[in-house]
Design a protein that fits this description.
There is one protein chain. The chain has 3 helices and 4 strands, in the order αβββαβα. It has 106 residues and is of the alpha+beta class. A 4-stranded mixed β-sheet has the order 1-2-4-3, with helices on both faces. The protein is globular, with a radius of gyration of 13 Å.
Length: 106
């Protein structure tokens, strides 16, 4: 349930709709598979490898717990900017829910 290949990310960037949150953006595009797939992009400027991996774990867990909020059969890319400051799963889930509601998805 993950996007791994560069061409998959590029397709989402090209065809997807963007929603901007505090320190990250969510790009959602219609998927080729019948499942929701997630890809996470964290810039090196966001911190050390430990910090970047922690951010990825937070987003994967938030996605796992809230999959039903995302459109079915979609590819989702989370692009994390260097100013990302959330360390709480609860705060991240609330921000994602707000973005999806504002975008008319949830």
């Amino acid at each position: 349930m993950r996007l791994r290949l560069n061409r998959e990310f590029q397709q989402v960037y090209k065809k997807g709709k963007r929603r901007h949150g505090m320190g990250f953006s969510i790009i959602i595009a219609p998927g080729t598979a019948q499942i929701r797939r997630l890809g996470i992009s964290v810039q090196r400027k966001a911190g050390t490898a430990v910090r970047r991996n922690r951010i990825k774990r937070l987003f994967r867990e938030a996605f796992r717990l809230n999959q039903e909020r995302f459109p079915p059969a979609s590819d989702i890319v989370v692009a994390v900017r260097p100013d990302f400051a959330m360390n709480s799963l609860t705060a991240l889930e609330q921000e994602i829910a707000l973005l999806l509601r504002r975008g008319g998805t949830a």
